[in-house]
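Quiz preparation item.
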């Protein structure tokens, strides 16, 4: 039986073009990009080109891109970097952020910062008016993700960006799940800091970047060399950065067709479940085409995941970081405070490049067979 991977929001396979771009970078480019000799200059050229490609893809300037080890580090750098460099002691965020943001702001809270956590509306969206109402004179940072990794719900970040135009607070958004799904233009979105990761867009793991608008104060988190304009010390991962650049180019070239495909996959997947008379609800409204979070009536998440795995369908219970633990999802708990069963019977399915209409339909049929077996 063919394995069917529906867990692309956790991570994606590395694209063959990315591998092909990284191999010569490994074989031929071994200089340290900070060295001034020709070997170093060759490595520096890769960094410069990648920075240019990525900046232009986001509508940003080259100086506004900082390479990091991934989305987690980019989120941490934004949150700690801005708060340390500024006076205010109040931060606004949401209760549905990825742990890379949530645990970072909780650590600020332990240091004496005042944190406002905004809960989502039942559809999973954050109401921008609640952000406006929470603003104070000493609000230094607002952090609201663009796409939620568990439900796929697209947040109204543009509206929040507009509200913040008249306020001193800096606006950070975790953009990890939007890259490759929508065209991102940081200037149009009025975002000051935005975090991204390579492995969600068919790039390598362990590489990502933070967009930081010119003029936004940012303290470095690492002590060491003067890399990344003194904002992120440490020798850059040249080969992974080459891979990241290739992945960004790929998504820019094929993005619209890909997303059209994902939209088809999602409706085919849900239609097949309905046809097979599976009893379910979709968690969240206005989700991106690549992610669907489903609550299976009367089921238990661990039994479902184990049985899906036996049927060779890979999915996940929300965030990969908490998969394997029995903790209920903090995102679904915030969305459905009066329906606790949703936190224990919900599964996230996420589509990607190697899915086809055939394997998506086949996956839905296998899932339906599991549900029928378990309800007997
Ligand atoms: C929304 C979101 N933010 C941050 C991260 C962390 O990114 P990374 O795995 O590159 O550290 C993830 C990964 O699961 C994510 O989905």
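Solution:
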């Amino acid at each position: 039986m063919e394995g069917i991977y529906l867990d692309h929001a956790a991570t994606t396979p590395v694209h063959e073009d990315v591998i092909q771009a990284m191999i010569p970078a490994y074989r031929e480019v071994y200089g340290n990009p900070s060295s001034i000799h020709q070997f170093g200059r060759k490595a520096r050229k890769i960094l410069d080109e990648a920075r240019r490609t990525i900046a232009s893809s986001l509508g940003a300037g080259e100086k506004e891109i900082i390479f990091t080890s991934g989305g987690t580090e980019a989120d941490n750098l934004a949150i700690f970097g801005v708060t340390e460099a500024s006076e205010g002691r109040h931060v606004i965020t949401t209760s549905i952020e990825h742990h890379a943001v949530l645990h970072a702001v909780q650590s600020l809270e332990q240091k004496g910062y005042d944190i406002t956590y905004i809960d989502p509306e039942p559809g999973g969206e954050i109401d921008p008016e609640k952000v406006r109402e929470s603003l104070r004179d000493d609000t230094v940072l607002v952090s609201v993700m663009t796409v939620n990794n568990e439900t796929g719900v697209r947040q109204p970040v543009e509206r929040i960006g507009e509200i913040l135009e008249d306020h001193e607070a800096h606006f950070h958004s975790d953009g990890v799940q939007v890259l490759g799904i929508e065209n991102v233009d940081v200037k149009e979105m009025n975002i000051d800091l935005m975090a991204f990761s390579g492995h969600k867009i068919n790039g390598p793991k362990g590489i990502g970047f933070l967009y930081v608008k010119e003029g936004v104060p940012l303290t470095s988190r690492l002590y060491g060399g003067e890399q990344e304009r003194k904002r992120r010390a440490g020798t850059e991962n040249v080969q992974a950065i080459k891979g990241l650049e290739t992945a960004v180019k790929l998504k820019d070239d094929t993005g619209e067709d890909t997303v059209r495909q994902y939209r088809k996959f999602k409706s085919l997947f849900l239609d097949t479940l309905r046809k097979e008379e599976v009893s379910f609800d979709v968690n969240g409204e206005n989700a991106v085409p690549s992610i669907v979070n489903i609550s299976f009536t009367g089921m238990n998440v661990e039994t479902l995941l184990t049985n899906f795995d036996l049927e060779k369908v890979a999915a996940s219970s929300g965030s990969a970081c908490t998969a394997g633990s029995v903790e209920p999802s903090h995102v679904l708990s915030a969305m459905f405070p009066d329906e606790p069963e949703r936190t224990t019977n919900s599964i996230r399915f996420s589509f990607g490049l190697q899915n086809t209409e055939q394997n998506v339909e086949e996956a839905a049929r296998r899932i339906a067979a599991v549900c029928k077996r378990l309800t007997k």
